[in-house]
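INFO  loader      accepted 1 record
INFO  loader      residues=419
INFO  predictor   begin
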Amino acid sequence: MPAPHPLTQTPSQAHRDGAGRSAPRIAGVDAARGLALIGMFSVHVYGAFAADGSPTPAWMFAGGRSAATFALMAGVGLAFTTGGRRPAVGRGAYVAVATRALLIGLAGLLLGYASRAADLDVDVILTFYALLFLCALPLLRLHPRTLIGLSLTLAVVGPVVLHLVRGALPEPAFDGDPTLTDVVTDPLGLLCDLLVHGNYPVLAWTAYLCAGLAVGRLDLTSKRVATRLLTGGLALAAGAWLAATVLLQWFGGLWHLWRAEFSDTPWREARSEVLWDTSDGSTWWSLISRAPHSTSPFDMLQTLGSAAALLGAALLLTRLPLARKALAPLSAAGSMPLTLYCAHVLFLATGALSDAPDLLYALQVAGALLFAVVWRRAVGRGPLETVVAAGARHARRAAECHEPVTARPPTEPVDTKNP
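INFO  predictor   done
INFO  writer      dumping tokens
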């Protein structure tokens, strides 16, 4: 039996691929997901703006980027669970992905009750995440190059479509994060919130999932692939950020955005707000914003690039034994993001240490890393990940029992070296 690749973990820590085979985890992927997770923690704890109106460091560095990385990594994980470099996408795979989406969505809707009760300003991502998975079903057979093209198209065109349709679609009747109750009382409003009005509008955010699905079909143990992710991601992020800055600073974008959406604040005090606060999309000028979660083409491309670069950097770092060991706690956390994200939101809902954000953040990060390391060594897969995986596995088996052998598609390998 050949020795495992040095960048992967042992088979005891493996997940299952689309054909039900054991597939070892890749340390760099888990480390990138872990970084995205603690970045989201920071945004939830520190918020967007300080008392003096200036953006917090958490918002400046992790705002939008962490959530985008989380969504891109969802696509990578989806690729892994449907065969990785050799896609195995039959009826069983479709049913397994749909079941996974429903269970994640259920977790998000249940968290909504805690978020609303505590009046949290968190914007739980899991319900959007679930709809992204459902939207990915028709994309599972596509070639990586096609997925990358679709991702870039959605990143540019999606925000324009959002701007055009946002005013025509009903807004949700509920305030805050959606719950199971809203599924019954306001299903249309909930769907429009997930697709268009929410903080992670699926109509545009599918771009991140497409990119992740493409990346997950590549050979992520290849140094060449990792380097391309890092350099290409940095180039895309820097180019989008600089282009938006030029339009905002030299072509009057800041002034027009201020007049349209921030004119109640004096101009001298509004510059930081215009640059960093999320636009409400009431003007076409909002499409040149680079503020976190503005969902403009520039915001989408910049965060898409930064997410790819982060993954590439993590893959390259974990090629070094010392770095891989140093990042092991992050990798452990990244292997159970659903469990840790839910625990994070529930802890915030208690209100404990809400007046001491530094201590709150330090305890949450330390607690998450410690729990992840101990649980992973003792048990393996995270608690909620185990539940979701079991549900998907049983759904797959039930579907495959009724699937004719001739209906199963061939599993042709894709070009894994070149995205």
